[in-house]
Design goal:
Layout lengths: L1 H28 L23 H4 L15 H16 L4 H15 L30 H4 L2 H13 L9 H9 L11 H11 L3
Length: 198
């Protein structure tokens, strides 16, 4: 009787094992069941850390803000300014000042010579002038070079980090319209927040 009982128990265990082997993988690959109406938790890999927005506009914006819709080329130029800013070892605020300046000067378009509409010999994202020592036409129409040249000028402005954006930009650019840079600060900050960690 012990032998018969033992064989029966082993037989049942064997069936259970075999059932687990055959049913296990099928069950493992089956789609998870979801009870309707209940949210499903999904694991998502964390993105890169967000930019500290208090660094982008530390003094608040000045005056009414302007905003334009950007083409892919203009966004690529904003990203080039951000990349050059990082390469120069400068922070997010420097990128905001640079992009706001380029928004005012060229609407983030890498402008060549515009003929009669040109402001003297101004060209590129920052409307820099070869005759004023910014570099050759080829250099100032290279987004990395022109950004680096602008940032070099910005670094020479004592306390630029503590100045309103328009004052810092004007000290470098010496524009006939010094207050116009301020209107682009929010859009520049938004671009830096979106693309700094990409």
């Amino acid at each position: 009787m012990n032998t018969i009982l033992r064989k029966s128990v082993l037989g049942v265990a064997g069936l259970a094992f075999a059932g687990g082997v055959f049913a296990g993988p099928a069950a493992a690959h089956a789609a998870p069941t979801v009870e309707s109406g209940k949210p499903v938790a999904v694991a998502v890999q964390a993105d890169k850390p967000a930019v500290d927005k208090t660094k982008l506009i530390p003094h608040g914006v000045q005056g009414a803000q302007s905003r334009i819709d950007l083409t892919d080329e203009q966004v690529a130029n904003a990203k080039a300014i951000i990349a050059a800013t990082k390469k120069a070892g400068m922070d997010e605020r420097a990128a905001v000042v640079s992009i706001a300046t380029a928004l005012q000067e060229s609407k983030l378009e890498n402008l060549g010579h515009l003929g009669d509409r040109n402001d003297h010999d101004s060209q590129g994202l920052f409307q820099q002038r070869p005759s004023s020592g910014w570099g050759t036409v080829e250099q100032i129409t290279d987004p990395e070079y022109s950004t680096t040249a602008f940032l070099k000028g910005l670094k020479q402005v004592d306390g630029w980090q503590d100045m309103p954006l328009t004052e810092a930009a004007q000290t470098v650019q010496v524009s006939a319209y010094p207050d116009h840079y301020a209107q682009w600060e929010q859009q520049a900050a938004d671009l830096v927040a979106e693309h700094w960690n990409n």
